[in-house]
Amino acid sequence: MELTNIQLEQVDAQIKRLLNTDSYYGNIYRKKGIDGVTSQEDFEKLPFSSKDDLRNAYPLGIQAVPDEDVVRIHSSSGTTGKPVIIPYTAKDVDDWAIMFARCYETAGITKKDRIQITPGYGLWTAGIGFQAGCEKLGAMAVPLGPGNTEKQLQMMIDLQSTVITATSSYALLLAEEINRRGLKDKINLKKGVFGSERWSDKMRETIRESLGIELYDIYGLTEIYGPGIGITCKNECGIHYWDDYVYIEIIDPVTGKPVPDGEEGEIVITTLVKEGAPLIRFRTHDISRIIPGTCACGSKYPRLDIIKGRSDDMFKVHGVNMFPSQIEDLLSNVDGVSSEYNVTIAHDDSKNKDIMIVTVEAEGRVDFEKTGATIRELFKSRIGVTPKITVVPAGTLPRSEKKTKRVIDYRYNN
C-alpha cells in the first residue's frame, strides 16, 4: 500500500521539522543528507528507526519540540536494556484519545457503556490510554488498574460494567474466577477489548464462551502513541488502523524490502502528525500482513491481519527455529487441552545437549498420558523436535495480571 499524496506531504513535513531540531533523528538525517521526500521511492530509501535508536537516545534525545511543549512522558513496558522514553505534546495526547475513542466506536461501544479498565497506569501507556479514549467518547470509566481481582469482581457486579479492557491473560484469569464462583448471572459484560499480547484462538474461544461477550483486539505500542492505533471490528477479519495518523508498510524482516499487500512480514510504522517524538519507518518486529480490499463492515480504514507474533520471539532448539504461535496452533488441535502452556529450555551440561520441556493443561476427562504422547508426536512431525511433555490439570499453570511469559530459556541466563 503506497503513500497517498497527503501522507507523502505529511512525511516530508515531519522530516523537515526534524532537520530543524538538534534531536537524535534530526542529526542522523543531516549526516545522511536527507532533506525530504517527494515520492514512494524516496520514502523507501529512508533509513529504518528502531528501539535500539531510542535506547541510544536515552533519555530524551528523540524529543523534537521544546521542553515547554511536552506535557507527558511514557515508557515502554520492556524489561531488557535501557527503557524507552517517549515525550508527548498536548496535541499528541489529544490525537491519541481521538484514535482510542474511534477504537471504542468501531467496537460498537457508546457513551452509555461502563468501561472497566484493568491495564496498568503510570509510565505504561495502557491504562491511561484506555481511560482517555473512554472520556473522549463520553462513556463512564471505571479505572481500577491492574490486580486486586476481588475489587474487580465487586465493581463489575455493583456498577454493572458493560465493557472489560485487559490483557488477554488477565481476561482469562477473570473469566475463570467468574465461572469458579458462579457469578456469570450477576455480571453485565457485553464486550471485551484486549491487547498487549498475542493470544491463541483457543484462549479467545475460552474467554468468549466463559463470559458470553464480543471480543475485540486493540493494537498499538508505546513508541507509536500506545494502544489505540487500530482495532478489530465486529466482522473479526482484521485490525482497522487509522491511516490519517499512521502509515503502515510490511517488509521482509531479513531483507528490509517492502512486500506486496497480502504477503506476511514485519510491520513498520511511520507517524504522520506526531509532534513530541515523530518516528519514521519504525520497525516493530510484529508479524502480520495488510489485508487487501474493503471490509464488509463498511469502514474506509485499511486493515492489518491479527498479529501472528514477533520476529524476535523466535527461539532455536536442536537447530530448529520455533515461534510460540506454532506451538499454540499445534495445541489447538489436541482435544481437551486448554490455551495455557509454557516452554522451559535449558542446557544439560552432562550430556552437552539442550532440553526442552513443554507443560500443558488438560481437562480431567482426557487421558493425560495419551494426550502427552499425542502432543509429542505432533511436535516431532510438524516442528521437527521431540520435547519432554508434562500434562497437568486445568488451572495448574500460573495466571498473570499482565502479559504471560510463555517461553523461559535458561541457556542464556547467567
Automatic annotation (TrEMBL):
InterPro entries, sorted: Adenylate-forming_Reductase, AMP-bd_C_sf, AMP-dep_Lig_C, AMP-dep_synth/lig_dom, ANL_N_sf, PA_CoA_ligase
Protein name in the entry: Phenylacetate--CoA ligase
Keyword Iron among UniProt keywords: no
Segments forming domain AMP-dependent synthetase/ligase: 59-270
One Pfam family per UniProt: AMP-binding
The AMP-dependent ligase C-terminal domain, residue ranges: 319-411
Keyword Cell cycle: no
Keywords in alphabetical order: Ligase, Phosphopantetheine, Phosphoprotein
Sample GO molecular function, one term: ligase activity
UniProt source species: Eubacterium segne
